[in-house]
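Re: beginner question about structure tokens

> Can someone show what the tokenized structure looks like for a real chain? I only ever see the sequence side.

Sure, here's an example I had lying around. Input first:
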Amino acid sequence: MARLIKLGFPLVCMAWSIIACSKYLAPVKQQYIQYQVGDSVSADSAYIRYYLPYKQQLEAEMDRVIGHLDVNLTKGDNAPETLLGNFFADALLAEGRKSYPDAEFSFGTKGGLRIELQRGDITIGHLFELMPFENELVLLELSGQNVQQLAQFIASTGGQPISGIRMKIKDNQPVDVQIAGKPIDTSRTYKLLTYDYLANGGDNSRGLENPVNRINLGKKVRETLIDYVSQQTREGKHINTQLDGRITRN
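And the corresponding structure tokens:
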């Protein structure tokens, strides 16, 4: 019988009795035996020896320090602007502009940021925990009207991570929305950096559907974060994100 791996759920095995008649085989009896795989079953040392080098290599990579935080990056539930959201949106915009320098603003959602980051060293593992999904960076060209719809979504949900765009929220409505210091012009198009989950309608986002153009950058969001932090480190900088009033609520 093959060895069992410790997985924590019942394993059902079925044994067949088979008789031979010339070249044909036919089952004559079925027997089911349930094996409870849990704490009562000892781990198989052969399997442990097999995967242990890969586990150690993965842990070493996840523990690798790539930067340093001077502040705690928090994401208060009711705050329209957060340190974690600013860091995230700034990273998307900065890294996306390496490929598309004319990208004007970026957008994410609070729900996509799974953990807060504490002051101190930043490891690869921290950024995997922050963005554990397989989301990829996307550039969207949006009409001015779609940007207004996006601003409405941001306001109605109490604020979301953004960079390159500033706005006020009053009575759940967007007020004084500006991109690059100018009000939205409904006659032109804007270039937004976000990720495919939101571009596909995730988190009930609005304004991203039916873009004028869409370009999939083929780069994972967490890779974008890793590259951003690594770049800051190469330049001798720590991550010192601040609140700057990009979203306020009256």
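Each token stands for a local structural state, so reading them left to right follows the chain. The first helix runs from residue 45 to 62.
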